[in-house]
Amino acid sequence: MDRGPTRRIDRPEPGSWKVRLHSGGPLVFAEIRVVHTTHEPGNPENVMERSPFLAAFINNKPVKLNDVWHRRPLEDVPETDLAYERADGEWAVDGANSYARNVPKARPREKIDPLQVELPF
Hints:
- Helix content is about 15%, strand content about 25%.
- By secondary structure, it is of the alpha+beta class.
- The protein starts with 14 loop residues before the first strand and ends in a 28-residue tail after the last helix.
């Protein structure tokens, strides 16, 4: 979904984008999607029927809706890449993953220092 000059700042809409959280920082995956709670997380026996609502995520972690909607998107993420971007973002911020610590995406709020980034191979 294009968030061009005609978007309404007071009316968030579902979509997925690449954004920067810091000037000079890495591009990270951000999305707004409709979430429908049917049961308590981790306890499927506890039924919790709720109305669908908009929720925002950065690197597949929940954030405030305005943290995504009020950012300037740098590129759209096609629907065919959503599963990959969600998994990649979750991998990058996973603290138990020793490989992710050296990836700029794991520290999205820091500026990238090209001399400190390890080669990917």
